[in-house]
Every structure is written in structure tokens, then in C-alpha cells.
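lol ok so funny story. i was supposed to be doing the assay writeup but got distracted and ended up predicting the structure for this chain instead. priorities right. anyway since i did it might as well share w the group, maybe its usefull for someone
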Amino acid sequence: MTEQFPSYRGQMEYVCLGCGARYPIDELLYTCPSCGGVFLLEDTTFETLKDHDGGYWRTLFDERASTRNTALRGIFRFYELMAPVLEQEDILYLGEGNTPIVDGAPELQKFLGVSFAFKNDGQNPSASFKDRGMACAYSYLRALVRKHGWDEVLTICASTGDTSAAAALYGAYVGHPIKTAVLLPEGKVTPQQLSQPLGSGATVLEIPGVFDDCMKVVELLAERYRVALLNSKNSWRILGQESYAYEVAQWFNWDLSGKALFVPVGNAGNITAVMSGLIKLHRLGIISELPRLFGVQSEHADPVWRYYSTPASMRKYEPVQVRPSVAQAAMIGNPVSFPRVRTLVDVYESAGGTFGVVQVTEQEIMDATIAANRHGHIACTQGGECLAGLIRARELGLIASDEKAVLDSTAHALKFIGFQNMYFTNTFPQEYEITPDAALANTPVSVMSAAEKAQLSAEEFTGRAAKAVADRLKLAGK
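and the output, tada:
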């Protein structure tokens, strides 16, 4: 089918979670000019969508799954729920969204005694979930460029890898007047991730320290200079990432009863987006029941777990000093979007949902990552973090035997292949606190040396090598 672009247009405003102030969307705002609080974007006409029942929206979104209109093929299949102020000409589509949900390998599910599936968001264009947010943020930026006639726009972000890759990719595709710069913590981004913004032509600047240091720098730049900040402090990115929740619900035929979603916390943008999306689905009657939602944090970067593991009457949020983590995208000690999480958790729980945060060790993250990929998955270390979180939740009695978990594998396994190599060769620096499980390790075995081969004729080499392989694999002769 060729779907006509939606006629509905919302009226969106920035809403400050600190003081409640509201601002129009005719410019790009990151924090409240009045109090410095973070924003959520709100469609003030959202309630008019209730003129149609949940069945109408389910049918419409299902029909759009087969559209050939590229503006509606990706995350904007759910246009009315996300950023319904954009025109078709501004919407950017590089193939993001519609990532598969893959059931856990039967042997692994049986071994763990729990039903689960990975949502492989590493199958987005830049190989991470960040493309969802960038598609929305850049679409809005294109609208601003067209409206104001800007002839030069510099986009900038702090990153541990995935954000920079996505920002650079989408910026390169848009081209003039967009130019892209990214700030990375020096020596703390994998070579695979570093290659991505370089390959897309972005200006890559490295800063000593960790992600939080880079974030402070780009925040100051956004305050003092005309730049477009693309971190999750940008509320338009949160809207794009809501599509993850919509796709999960659609995959399960809009029935999320008996489901538990596990999401790594990191900068808290993604878990904010997932929660916000689920709330919207529930408000419109598209889903009748909210799933249970769990954030997962490594003990090396766990401020949100610390907050929610404390009795409600005693909670006090405090940033933490991070330690090295294999879940690099989640190694953030002061998540920008924590105020959004705190606000939305109250809404989520009042609507009948449950929210919790699970803490896991670095050892558990790597063991889970290796175990998943040895069973045919392509989980990144954040995906391993979610699997470790599921295992821990099961140990704590937080997951019932008849529930199905959906794990967010935020990036492709190949982005973090260096950690796998360190696991297999037992070369993790001490500060990671990881000792490889010999049963999960895997290293190449030499059939014969180059010196041995040099002593043989071509025919002798082939025969000797074949015999060595057969012996190693314990093959039976015909």
C-alpha cells in the first residue's frame, strides 16, 4: 500500500520537569531558561486522539507496516504518538526501526530456566538504538533549518561511541548546512566505534576523563554558542526512541500482559523513552496492560539503582564516580535523564505498571554476553547486561516462571568485540574485576606451524593437515 501522510498535527511544547514552565518549540531548547531543569515534550492536543479507540490505532499502525512511503516506513510509522508537528519533507529515513525480536536460543532458555527474547537494536543503520533518536532529532532540525533559513548548523554531542556514530551518520546524510562534531573520552571508546564518526567525516575531539566530563563540556558549549546538542538532553531524541516501545507492543500483537522489559540505564534516555511510549499506548487503549519494566545497571555505574533500592521515604539522588565497565554505553555516573525517569515512574506506577532497577556485576555482564553469543545471538555488552539483569531478577524472585522477558540489546556485538577477545585471552585489566570462565572461552588452535609446512610438499601438506584436522575433530572414516 502507499500510505498518505497523516493529516493530524499536534501542538507540542517543552515542559520543564523542575518548575513546570512551558516553552514553544520554535527553537531548540535543552534545559529550562528559568530553572535549568530538563524537558519532556508534550502534545497538548494528545487527548483528541482518544476520538478513535485503541482498535483504530492498532489497525492503522499494522497497516502502515507495509507502506512504501519512506516517511512512514521507520519510526514514524507511529507518527501521531511521537512528533506530529513534522512535515513529510523534513522526515529523515535511513532504515532505522523495525529491528527484530529474536527468541532466546532454546538451549539457553532451558539452561537459564526463563523465557526471554532479545530485541536486536544493533541492526539499526549505525548498529545501535541511537538511530531512533537521531532520526527524530535530525528531522526536527531540518524543519528548523527550513523555517529559519539557516546556512550553517553545527551539531555536537558527547559520546561513549554509539551516539557519535549515529550523529555523524545522519549528519553526513543530511549534508549542507549540517556539520558534525563529537567529543569522546580519550581511550574509552572501542576502535570499532571510533571508526564510525571518523568514517562519516565528523570532527572527532577527545577529552581526558569519562563520558560525564565530555557531557559537561558540550553542555557549556550549548549554553554559550549556537550549536545543536544531540545528546539525550535533547527532548526530540527521546521522542524518537519511544518507537522501541511501540515496536515491542506491535510484535506481541499489542498484548504486553505477562511481559517484562529489561533496559540498560546509561544516561537514562532510553528507559525514559520506553516508559513514555508505554504510557501513551496505555492512555489511548492501544494496550490494556502495562508490562513490568526493569532498568539494569552495573555496580560500576549505579546511581539509579542506589536511588530505587532505598525505601521511598529515604531516597536521595546522588551521582557516583564510575569505574571501568564493559557496558561502556552505560558507564555514566550522573544520568542526564534521571529527572525524567523519576517523573515518569510515578505516572507509570499510578497506571498499574511496575518499575524496578537491578544491579549486576561486571563478571555477570561478560559471562552473560559470551553465553548469549555462543548460542547464536549478536548481543552487545549492554545486551549482556540486560541478560545478566534478568538472571539476577530471577534469583531475587522478581520474575515469575510464566513471564517472558524482552531484553534490549542496544548495539551490535561487533562494536564490542575487543571485550570478547580480552575474555578469551584473559587480558582484562584488573579494574574490570573479570575472570573468564574457562567453559566459555574460545581460542584458535594451530594445526601445524609454518616451519612444519615448509618441510612438506604441497601434496604432503594437504594430507598431513587434513589428518590433523580429522584427529582434532575426532572424525570417523568412511
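The CA atoms of residues 2 and 69 lie 6 Å apart. The longest strand covers residues 178-185.
back to the writeup now i swear
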